[in-house]
Please model this.
Amino acid sequence: MCGIVGYVGEREAVPVLIKGLEHLEYRGYDSAGIACLSHDRSKFFMIKEKGKLAELKAQLNGVPPQMRLGIGHTRWATHGEPSKINAHPHLGRDSRIALVHNGIVENYAELKSELERKGHRFKSKTDTEVAAHLIEYYYRGDLCEALRKAVRRMKGFFAFVAISHDEPNRLFACKRSNPLVIGVGHNEHFVASDVSALLPYTKRVIYLDDDELVELTPDSVRVTQLQKGTKIQKKVSEINWNVEQAQKGGFPHFMLKEIYEQPRVLSETILERIDDKGNIHFELLPKSTVKKLQKIKKIHIVSCGTAYHAGLVANYMMGKYVRLPIEATVSSEFRYEDPIVGPGDLVVLITQSGETADTLAALRLAKEKKALTLAIVNVVGSTIAREADLVIYTQAGPEIGVASTKAYIAQLGTLALFTFYLARLRKTIASQEYRELIGEFRKLPKSAEQVLKQVDDIDRCARKHFHRKNFLYLGRGYNYPTALEGALKLKEISYAHAHGYAAGEMKHGPIALIDEEQLVICIAPQSKTYDKMISNIEEIKARNGLVMAIGTYGSKALSKLADYLFLIPNTPEIFSPILSVITLQVFAYKIAVLNHRDVDQPRNLAKSVTVE
Ligand code: G6P
Model:
């Protein structure tokens, strides 16, 4: 949460910072601000605005030229309401340093009182302003030293980027838990919360690890250990994402573009990893892990939000084909509930960003308990990808819309692939069944395209129901998580109440909601529980409820009962969540647009939740 960016080099800093913030705005949009050092070094040039980046951009007329050093921030409020005063950057007492921050200084109240006793006065309610004062308090002309001393006093986690009035050619950054990546250019350097902000300028990056501090000048990068100051050699990595992937490409919203990208994502995630003989290859799984994976006794799947729903689907996938005890848990529960995890267990962390605070803490806990850890991650080089024992990238490309769509599909595809890989390794799947499933797997990108052909019909349905405030989603088995995900998509971006339920539980509560006003979205593709879903739908219709159903081509009973029917091509049950969720994503998108919601940046949400 919160996006931070910094620049030092030969270009005008302001446009670089603004473009960087545009790419980071999905991380928070409560306020935005920049601080640059003016060419005459008389004082910081600083502007901040409440609300989205557009508000800040509207204030940019008359920016003085020749500012080659600067920092920027887009905020998701933790301490202090969204306001101009609480917006970053924050300055020290004598305005000698400017600071942007992503994270939480947990002992800020204590530090604030201490500084107040020394005569410091604070304008904002933020922990960051306290950090800025503390850093400046220790500042004696060397910002590296001041950061080291100040950070020693702080509890919590942070990514800081700072500039000093007295060091006009230097940009400083350090981190603990929250991400920072350095962009390496020619006579210029960048720093940002993630690579998307760097893509317009460079594909050469250095990932900063925890407790590292970097000092950047236009032509040098110096990384040292944050506490001890010892020099650290870092590797430069090449990013294979491109700028176009992070742009809307003619679509009105990133979310819609990302929904339409799903067939391609399925090909890139799945098909490229299956060779002509039907063998599955994960490029980053070393051969040495095969034995370990053969011996695992239990699988834990840990994740948050949409990725948690992918974990629930994996529970069904691996339960059926890998035949091991398996448990999917949300990261925030896993990390605090003393889970029974140990050597011989595999802990799978699913995460789009690779930075979610609770999932990162869960990973660290699993490692402490000596479990084997596998990260299924989208963002290359993210903290979770780097810290896990094993990593499989989902290869969805940059996902900008806050509501996750293509990353979810990529997670499901990757998890299915990993399920088959494990099942084969552990000999829990017959060769014939494996071959058939791989054959069906290859059809998924085309089938996803078929599903997307119904967008206009989904739109017509949405137009009839966009005013509703309550939606109920029902599914069974593999598609119980689809019901949860469909409901989550709708509430995230339309702000209507939507509830996902296991259809078998309908009689234990939700049935009381049903009358002629209630729209029930039933996910009922061909499966072993198809008939049970039909019975549920009969019960809804008997009470005059309205039914929007998702079924498989040729499902006669469903077509007779449903008020609205959307179809997916025939596919084995394990793949049905991949196809059926697409209709629900489009439905949520249409409802949100009809309600004039901010689809890509829904209120109060952030794409990357780097605080608990
Ligand atoms: C936030 C995002 C969701 C995402 C969840 C987990 O809530 O808005 O889209 O599913 O975090 O994020 P992760 O990056 O770990 O998948």
Notes: The chain has 20 helices and 24 strands. The two ends are 10 Å apart (CA to CA).
